Amino acid sequence: MDSLLQHASCVTLSPPSVETADLRISGGVIVERSAHIVPRRNETVFDLTGRIVMPGLVCAHTHLYSSLSRGMPRPKKAPANFLEVLQKIWWKLDRALDEEAIYYSALAGAIDAVRSGTTIIIDHHASPTVINGSLDIIKEALESIGVRGALCYEVTDRGGKKKRDRGLDENERFIRSTAENTLYKGLVGAHASFTLSDESLALCGDLASRLHTGVHIHAAEDAYDVSHAQNTHGCGIIERFARANILTKASILAHGVHLSETDITAVRAAGCRLVHNPRSNMNNRVGYAPVHFFKEQGALGTDGFPADMFEEAKFAFYQRCDSRMGQPVDFMTLLNGGQRMASDIFGGRFGALATGSAADLVVLNYQAPTPMTKNTCGGHFLFGMQSSAVESVMTAGTWIMKDRTVTGIDADAVMEKARKAAKKLWNRMEKL
Ligand SMILES: [Zn+2]
Hints:
This protein has 432 residues and is an alpha/beta fold. The chain contains 13 helices and 19 strands.
């Protein structure tokens, strides 16, 4: 369907810009932008007077499977460190996931995303009991809502070689099956240095290279990852990744909390993306990522928290209180980094409201109490705008939320089913 959005206050953060304009949308892209566009007979006109239009937001690293973890019973003995957080919580949760839980966690997470104006989710999935076809289940859930997704399956040695190989196969199958898809793409998922042998890392790097894609992997999230590499392999994580051919332009390293400046320089020189996940880092008390070194290769993720980038950006900014930072985090560059990742993964232009850009848009009902200009829009994003102001969302030219109603599914019915699936999931976890 062709659409004409009229009288919208078009706002972009990077570069900062505020301008009232009309946008013509056809074939999933913005085909015209001008101060006044005369409607055509074949297009639907939307009057957005008093509304802000921004490019759809990108969540550059998350785990949709954790959507059903909210409020789940805590382990009997509190985890003492990061490894125990994984062993006692997340590695139990992912082993307890069945097809129904994968589906409803993805659906619930995607509903959170669209209600927050997030149109692209870069997900990292693990479900050792259901490996084959698991990425299709997530894709099916995202498709029913219309959120774009770059998906991968987490390859790891923690379940033995057979499961590792099934993980590699699932990535390959999904990457090939989505080669021509414009809304869904595959990457090669890998857990982290400390659960991958040299051989397994090399298999991930080789697969990504053969399929012309990148590896999406956790890097130095906790100090344990770094000391494990030194003690077990006698070198740093980045050296291991480089040897395994993982440091490429298409690869995504999540966290980077304990990477040194030298490590980050090498990562940046290779063209990899580094994804900052401030809420998760604070929650797991793993430390403060040296985000100021990420520069334009940084992006923002939620690492299992709801894909609400308004919220995540606030945490990224307020964390500057950490004495090591000394300067505020450039959250606009981080958000824009996600847009550049989207452009690389999906092709085309994201993060702009210009002719030729993807028609992935957010309409906000935000009443600014101070002037909204290119100099102030960042301040409004940080100190005023919230996901509750997101009124409508469009991906590839289609409204996937209109006037706060998710259009593709009955969100109330989905959440009802998700609650039932969550209960069953928690029961299975108790028995592990
Ligand atoms: Zn993660």
